[in-house]
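Troubleshooting log. The previous run stalled partway through. Resubmitting the same two chains, unchanged.
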Amino acid sequence: MQMLREVLEPLLDEVLMSIGVTNAHWRSMLVRSREHDQGDLSLPCFPFAKELGKSPIEIAQQIADSLESHFAIGEVNAVAGYLNIKANPTWLAQQVMDDAVRIGDAFGKKPANNTHILIEHTSANPNGPFHVGRARNAILGDTLVRLHRLYGNNVRAEYYVDDMGKQVGVLAWALEHLGKEEVERTLVGRESINEKWQGKADHERVRWYQAAQSIRQERSDKEDIEAEIGRMVHASEHGDEEVLQAFENAYQPVLDGMLETLKRLGIDFDTFTKESMFVTNGDVSKLMEKFKTFEIHGTADNGAEFLDLGARGLKGKTEFFFRRGDGSSLYATRDIAYHIWKWKQCDQLINVLGEDHKLQAKQVGMTLTELGEKIPDVLFYSFIKLPEGKMSTRKGNVVYMDDLLEEAQAQASAVVGEIHPDYSPEMVAEISEAAGTSAVRFNIIKVSPDKGFTFRWEEALAFEGGSAPFIMYSHARACSIARKCVAAGIDLDAAANSSTELPSSMPKGMVELLRTMCVHQDVLSKAVNDRRPHLFANQLLQLATSFNAFYRDCMILQDGELNVFNFQLSELARNLMRTSMQGLGIVPVEQM
RNA sequence: GGAGGUAUGGUGUAGUGGAUAGCAUCAGGGAUUUCGAAUCCCUGGACCCCGGUUCGAGUCCGGGUACCUCCGCCA
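Second attempt completed without errors. Output:
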């Protein structure tokens, strides 16, 4: 609780100095109390014992006795060598009422901040529909973008389009050379396309890609095919405009289909940058010429070139190849050119990458350092598996995001329909779409990115307990209260702006809510700066829970009479929930 | 074989060197003539193993074990 800390530190400074503590590091020992009942902040006094020649119990007591009283401090107690300080709930209420805890756009209180942040995420190869595994990148990345915006930062969300190279080459070849019948014949025995996605290009065209993958290994003329694909790929890597155009015609509809899926999840991008740009504009060849002058530059027998990063401390295989024997560039080379370009347009760079890219990212980072460039921050995440094992399109072991979202919507629809038979079909559809997509996002975002994750239908579709609909429900209930007040003929604006006495004694649920609201900004700050969105997801869950406790203990509207303070607090909590939900991509519907 | 990551109730997970390890699910019990029961309350149950550092270790260090990822002139 940063706001309490700011009040407390000068006071404690004085007391500690007066009793003879010289260790200036005590500030880092002032921690959030583990025992919520004991206090908000605690100072363990064990380290002072040696210096002062007294027991920690005595020291804690002595500090408690000599601590100056302050409006912010509610209770001070010394227990078992710990000094516990509890905030005065009335002071917390004042902080909340004075807007100290408001965050985000809707509150018009952005931190002054001129840094430009570029977040690159997703950047999936445009060769097939999103499955749940690939979507973790998009959900993490988009949530990070949203949280930065909530925090007041200037963010650009970017998708790096892999518009050249073998995967797109295979897709282009397949679309040109294979007929629908041949594709289906090749894929016989594999799962057929879900009828629902007929006409959606990512689902349609991936079958051409899959058929080609199998034909490349099995058909009698596979050497010829391989040569043909190889010719196109190399032409693309040399910037052949005709080939690049053919590639684009092949992948663009696929990419559009993929973006449609992301859109449904509330995920958007500000800019798309094509990989080929760095080949056609000459950046890549200039870069490769520059590498030649490096002392760690080396050449293989066939003329391929590399940098020996072993000399810079890389372990394992130390040669980092940037150019093939035929003179064309490699993916990583283009990635470096891309990073140099990105650094020209931002102050901070964040990439969201799967853990399989760790070595690659390290090589790129070391090379950027070699070039005198800064290295990006990277948010790595672990893969999503299925209970049957690794997700694999080839083995048919895959859950498509489109299917998951359909199912989520259908199940949410069943719940809404049951609870509210009075709602119109349109309303049910809208609510269940919001609840379904939000539940899917939240289920993925609430887990720490570096934790392996096994996808389970029943968890992804859970609408109770620690889920998005749980949060949405608390928010909807707060909205409902406000509507009830209007129905009772109360002027909301007047009530919101009228000044009111701060209560001097409060029920437990109200104190809970105030405390949660007062750490909200602290948690957001940590989630953003440490790139750990799940911390904020858990905080929002806590906020919803606290609001429920407040609702339980405090009446806002009773017998037509409005409790003004309770109403104001409820409205502030409602707004905080709403903006926080937006920060996580949860849709804040007002009724459900 | 080398490099990186992870290990917490039955299950899924949170946890800033600090006290009685939090949440959800699950199992069992209870709460509504009152602002929305997708709610709330009560009970049950966990820090992989062995050492070390420390006044104090789930957390830091070393060594095991298990699982995941990488070690392409692929992207």
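Takeaways: The CA atoms of residues 283 and 337 of chain A lie 6 Å apart. The mean pLDDT of chain A is 91.
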